[in-house]
Specification:
By secondary structure, this protein is mainly alpha-helical. It has four helices and two strands. A two-stranded antiparallel ribbon has the order 1-2. Helix 2 crosses helix 3.
């Protein structure tokens, strides 16, 4: 009887220990997820602000330039400066994706046809920025918020570029 009681108490103690450790693991996973969320939120905010500032500087540079007439060379210069601005934004987000992929659990961030090369992250960033979204690489977890915000920023900055170029063409025609 005492031997069975001892085994019963030991089994109860082990079960209780497992229950406590499971709760601790769940709590630590929540804290880990919250630290991920803070990290992603902070750096997404920095990337969005940096993208807007860079694009604003590019547009301001073109706005203060005095052109008396529009020709293909001037229009090509406008297009090249703005295209480089967009590529800078794509490159910054691709760097962030690659950094997160290499320093955090890669299976929690991305899925799909993704290799361990910067070209894949650049490709993913371009398809996200232009809101093309092919779908062969897709985000998981907290990275979905970053990707969604990159799409929103890309849409906004591409529209800003189109508005600026169209406004400049109308100003020149007057």
């Amino acid at each position: 009887f005492f031997i069975n009681l001892r085994y019963y108490l030991l089994a109860l103690l082990i079960f209780r220990y497992q229950s406590i450790t499971r709760k601790y693991i769940v709590i630590s996973e929540k804290k880990h997820s919250q630290s991920f969320m803070f990290y992603f939120s902070f750096f997404t905010f920095v990337l969005v602000a940096l993208s807007i500032v860079i694009h604003g500087i590019a547009i301001n540079y073109l706005a203060i330039a005095k052109f008396k007439s529009i020709n293909y060379l001037v229009f090509a210069k406008f297009s090249l400066v703005l295209f480089c601005s967009h590529l800078t934004h794509v490159f910054l987000f691709a760097l962030f994706y690659a950094y997160c992929f290499h320093h955090f659990s890669a299976t929690e961030l991305f899925a799909g046809n993704l290799q361990d090369s910067f070209v894949d992250f650049f490709y993913f960033s371009i398809t996200t920025y232009t809101t093309l979204g092919i779908g062969d690489v897709y985000p998981l977890g907290n990275m979905r918020i970053v990707v969604g915000l990159q799409s929103l920023v890309g849409l906004m900055l591409i529209a800003w570029t189109a508005t600026f170029k169209l406004g400049y063409l109308f100003k020149i025609k007057k």
